Amino acid sequence: MVGQRVRMVTGLGAIAATLGVLMPGHRGMAFGGSGVPQTNPPIQQQTYPQGDQTERLLRDRVCPGCNLRGSSLVYANLIGADLRGADLRGANLSQATLAEADLRGADLRGATLHGADLQGAFLDGALLGGANFQDAILYGVTVVGAQVDQANLRGAVGVPTAWVSARDRFNWGVAEAERGNFAGAAAHYDAAIAQDGTFAEAYLNRAVARANLADYEGAAADSQRASTLFAQRNDPQGAEQAEAFQTQLDAYLEASQERDRPRRGGNGIGITILNFVRSLGGFLIPRLL
Q: Most buried pick, 3, 35, 157, 191, via CB within 10 A?
């Protein structure tokens, strides 16, 4: 009886090798008639009911070419999942873990990946138009040939440079500043400046953010740098705005020092300080089109 079972298993293995069947333990790899591994076999659209495909994905994390359109995969653990060529249009993958997942050629148009972890994921050739990557983690993703037009990348970290411009990052900073999140705004301005070291508007807006965070030394350095850059590109209006900010900042710092000295009566110091605080928002350069 044992000998018959061994022969049966061996026979099934031979049949699988001959037909190129994907055997358990060989995800993403099939064996041809020669027994030599063949990587990336052609992906065919799965015809099983959608619910069955979702269950298969969650169970095995192997579902290349699956129809998962509009599926709810919130908080799903899909580490290393094989989703090559899968149809995930409109799927909800919020907070899902997709680290090192293979999404090459997948269709994620209109999908929601809010807060998803995509570290090291393969997105080459994927369709990502209109996808929501807000607050997603994108460190180490590969994106060769990926189409990401009109995707929401606000708040995402590790965003590939090829996906966003310094202007995009600047506008995200403005949005955060308008919400009163000056630390978040400064972080976006940092990224914009790292991408374009001559971005005068980013320097001036970061000066405003830093002033709101009581980093007056940093604010002064940024406003001076902004003034220089505006002048270099022959933008007198921008240079004037940066210089006006610096003048107000200097007056504020001087008034603050005077306020701390013993004296009798008032001399307008409080008004100077109040005026500076109120004027900060007026120096903020709005979003750039």
A: 191
